[in-house]
Amino acid sequence: LHMTRLTGNDKKLKAKLLSTVKACIETRHPDFLGDHQQDAHEFLMVCLSYLKEEGELLWSYWPEYICPVANMEFQLNRRRTCD
Q: Which residue has the higher pLDDT, 1 or 32?
């Protein structure tokens, strides 16, 4: 995900990198396999979680790095679910 920020306007490379990200998520969360519609909030939370892990790893090698997820961290007060 961090690489997509650094690719500039290369749309083909961004599409390839984002497909790779989705494939990585699918290996750990089979619910997101294929093109079936899934819960967008859950997918976003998984993406942000992996982005934070990646950011912490980058920070350990490059202390000046600031993880973009830190700007979006908050505690969810309410959750609405459908049965």
A: 32
